[in-house]
Write a structure and sequence with these properties.
Blueprint: E1 14-20, E2 26-36, E3 43-53, E4 64-69, E5 77-86
Parallel strand pairs: 3-5
Antiparallel strand pairs: 1-2, 1-4, 2-3, 4-5
């Protein structure tokens, strides 16, 4: 089974794309999802921006990463980086 086909066993884990990596040990990760409108049935795009703790500064902007919930580390940061699923293409 390929690495991308594996599903995570971590409860509450999500997969998203790193939006910014400007701060030390902190990343902004955007998680995309879609939800069906209760009345009209149209699928709406939703996004959630998470502040993620990256201890080793391993991820970069554009990388697809897996994050998991953890204890609050600051006012806004309560997620941690589990692994980098796919690297962004280098320019």
């Amino acid at each position: 089974m390929s690495q991308q086909a594996q599903t995570s066993k971590i409860q509450g884990a999500r997969v998203g794309v790193v939006a910014t990596d400007q701060r030390d040990k902190t990343r902004k990760v955007v998680v995309q999802s879609s939800a069906k409108h209760p009345k009209y049935g149209k699928y709406l795009q939703q996004r959630t921006v998470l502040h993620v703790h990256d201890e080793t500064n391993d991820s970069r902007t554009g990388d697809t990463v897996e994050v998991a919930p953890c204890r609050p580390m600051s006012k806004t940061k309560s997620w941690r980086l589990v692994r980098v699923v796919a690297r962004a293409p280098q320019e």
